[in-house]
């Protein structure tokens, strides 16, 4: 694990309709590290990663990604930053009118502006092989199972070769076996592509498998951090309740 910080957050605040969702969030993510965030619904877990991606504007605090203050970037600089980040939404966010191949080609052509057809073909095949979906290249998203759609969403996230991946509940709605497969895939992607990740999840087996470090969120703040094993043995009853 390298010590280089790719995300640095200090005193992050965010409110909606006068209700504070993030009150004082502090977070460092190091290069090549998987950080898992646990917390009850509505505690601001997803809001944090939307701020990191520049999809939401925080009300206060400092949020640096690759050393740049995200809130101070203009539209072009924000687009360039997002090219270095991948965001895996809960629903995989696929274009239903496009085939798997077309879904993968879209960010290459539109975001990275790649014109070389051979490079596009190679990148599509590489990521589909990485997520075990080579045979699905000409299928429509509606032909894919829930687990396959998650894999496909991950493939489309990976195709732009991001340095950071933000996962929002990557195993939600999946059966136990498929959830484990997706968790193992997250681990494989970390090793293969040297990605740094923030993983928002309620899925304790996913957290145990993927986390280098776990943070626990409550009432807009991180109240504990450590390895899975350290937090599982915590003397604090609230913290221990996540691991039962």
Top keywords for this entry?
single chain; alpha/beta; 2 domains; four-stranded antiparallel β-sheet; 9 helices; 26% strand
Layout: helices, strands, pairs:
Blueprint: E1 5-16, E2 19-30, E3 34-39, H1 45-52, E4 60-65, E5 68-69, H2 75-82, E6 85-88, H3 100-110, H4 117-130, H5 146-158, E7 164-168, H6 176-193, E8 196-200, H7 204-210, E9 213-218, E10 221-226, H8 228-232, H9 237-241
Parallel strand pairs: 3-8, 3-9, 6-7, 7-8
Antiparallel strand pairs: 1-2, 1-4, 4-5, 9-10
Helix pairs in contact: 4-5, 5-6, 6-7
What do you see in this structure?
The radius of gyration is 18 Å and the shape is globular. Helices cover 36% and strands 26% of the residues. The protein starts with a strand and ends with a helix. It contains nine helices and ten strands. The chain has 244 residues and is of the alpha/beta class. The chain has two domains: 55 residues, no CATH class; 119 residues, P-loop containing nucleotide triphosphate hydrolases (Rossmann fold), CATH 3.40.50. A hairpin with a 2-residue loop joins strand 9 and strand 10. The protein has a six-stranded mixed sheet with strand order 6-7-8-3-9-10, with helices on both faces. Helix 5 runs parallel beside helix 6.
Average pLDDT reading: 89
Our Rg estimate from Cα atoms comes to: 18 Å
- By DSSP (H or I, 4+ residues per run), the number of helices equals 9
Largest sheet: 6 strands, mixed
Unreliable residue stretches = none
Structural class: alpha/beta
CATH topology of the largest domain: the name is Rossmann fold
Helix content: 25-40%
Query: How many domains would you count in the coordinates?
Result: 2
The N- to C-terminal Cα distance equals: 29 Å
């Amino acid at each position: 694990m390298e010590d280089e910080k790719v995300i640095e957050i200090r005193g992050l605040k965010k409110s909606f309709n006068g209700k504070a969702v993030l009150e004082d969030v502090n977070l460092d993510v190091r290069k090549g590290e998987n950080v898992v965030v646990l917390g009850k619904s509505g505690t601001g877990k997803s809001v944090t990663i939307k701020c990191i991606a520049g999809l939401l504007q925080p009300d206060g605090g400092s949020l640096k990604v690759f050393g740049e203050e995200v809130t101070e970037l203009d539209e072009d600089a924000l687009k360039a930053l997002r090219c270095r980040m991948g965001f895996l939404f809960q629903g995989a966010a696929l274009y239903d009118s496009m085939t798997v191949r077309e879904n993968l080609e879209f960010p290459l052509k539109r975001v990275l502006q790649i014109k070389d057809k051979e490079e596009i073909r190679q990148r599509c095949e590489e990521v589909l092989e990485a997520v075990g979906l080579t045979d699905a290249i000409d299928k429509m998203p509606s032909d894919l199972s829930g687990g396959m759609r998650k894999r496909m969403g991950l493939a489309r996230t990976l195709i732009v070769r991001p340095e950071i991946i933000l996962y929002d509940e990557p195993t939600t709605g999946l059966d136990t076996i498929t959830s484990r497969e997706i968790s193992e895939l997250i681990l494989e992607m970390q090793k293969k592509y040297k990605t740094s990740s923030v993983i928002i999840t309620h899925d304790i087996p996913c957290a145990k498998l993927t986390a280098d470090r776990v943070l626990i969120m409550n009432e807009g703040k991180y109240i504990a951090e450590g390895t899975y094993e350290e937090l599982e043995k915590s003397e604090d009853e609230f913290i221990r309740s996540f691991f039962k």
